[in-house]
Design brief:
The protein is an alpha/beta fold. It has one domain: Aldolase class I (TIM Barrel), CATH 3.20.20.70. The chain has helices at about 20-35, 50-55, 85, 100-105, 110-120, 135-140, 140-155, 160-165, 185-200, 205-210, 220-225, 245-254; strands spanning about 5-10, 40-45, 60-65, 95, 125-130, 165-170, 210-215, 235. An eight-stranded parallel beta barrel has the order 1-2-3-4-5-6-7-8, surrounded by seven helices. Helix 11 (about 220-225) links the parallel strand 7 (about 210-215) and strand 8. Helix 1 runs parallel beside helix 12 (about 245-254). The longest helix is centred in the C-terminal third of the chain and has 18 residues, at about 185-200. The mean pLDDT is about 95. The structure holds 1,3-dihydroxyacetonephosphate. 1,3-dihydroxyacetonephosphate binds near residues 235, 237 and 238.
């Protein structure tokens, strides 16, 4: 399948995997995915496994991401981790503003924008997550909600930084529920996101930004979702925790 933008498929392991389990998983992924060149493959382990996974994937085509970071560079912020600390382990990407953090840690668009700027300052590529709840979708507020999240969470980025930013559309109602957005539903929102990016930045920037879909992606629905013109990859939760299911998603997307 020839795509305008290179697909990026990211495994968000969330709060799962001991170091030993993480190493098992990446060793398996390295074997299964050694020949894959068409897709950027990224894994985002919990921070406790980042050092070991980083070493284990050194000689592979798998890249490393983090699930969160602080907006600060350092100092008295107990429990926080900076972009610079992640860079020490060759982390290239960082998920920001995941709906679980928006919900449980009360992260708002303004904070996510600060984190995105801090990530870029350290040459990390942010994966900025947006998405509506079921109540918002049913009230026909999807575009309003997603538009506002984009405007707030990407505030202050330069055009060059935006091109190096990934947007993940993750409808909250599709996360961990087994109920994925249909290919049509995803394409509609992705096309809208690209329109918003064109108005916030410009057409040329919007054309280059990769927009991932996330929410109950599995090998059975990956091909149809990835075949949509504005769907440039996937952010995978549950199905990224096993070698077979994650590698099948990637192979089915090519
Ligand atoms: P699931 O793939 O488990 O629905 O999770 C999606 C997600 O939240 C990825 O960030």
């Amino acid at each position: 399948m020839e795509k305008e933008r290179k697909l990026i498929i990211v495994g968000n392991w969330k709060m799962n995997k001991t170091v030993a389990e993480a190493l098992d998983l990446v060793q398996g992924l390295k074997r299964e995915l050694a020949a894959v060149k068409e897709v950027d493959v990224v894994v985002c382990p919990p921070v406790t496994a980042i050092a070991d996974v980083s070493k284990a994937i050194l000689d592979s085509n798998i890249r490393l991401g983090a699930q969160n970071m602080s907006e600060h560079n350092g100092g008295a912020f107990t429990g926080e981790i900076s972009a610079g600390m992640l860079k020490e382990f060759s982390v290239r990407y960082v998920i920001l503003g995941h709906s679980e953090r928006r919900q449980h840690q009360k992260e708002c668009d303004g904070l996510i924008a600060k984190k995105a700027l801090a990530a870029h300052a350290a040459s990390l590529r942010p994966i900025v997550c947006v998405g509506e709840t079921l109540a918002e979708r049913e009230a026909d507020q999807t575009k309003e909600v997603v538009g506002k999240q984009l405007e707030g969470s990407l505030a202050g980025l330069t055009k060059d930084q935006m091109v190096e930013t990934v947007v993940a559309y993750e409808p909250v109602w599709a996360i961990g529920t087994g109920r994925n957005a249909s290919a049509d539903q995803a394409q509609t929102v992705h096309a809208f996101i690209r329109q918003v990016l064109a108005s916030l930045f410009n057409e040329a920037v919007a054309k280059r930004v990769r927009i991932q879909y996330g929410g109950s992606v599995k090998s059975a629905n990956a091909r149809e979702l990835m075949s949509q013109s504005d769907v440039d990859g996937a952010l995978v939760g549950g199905a990224s925790l096993e070698v077979r299911s994650f590698s099948d998603i990637i192979k089915n997307s090519i």
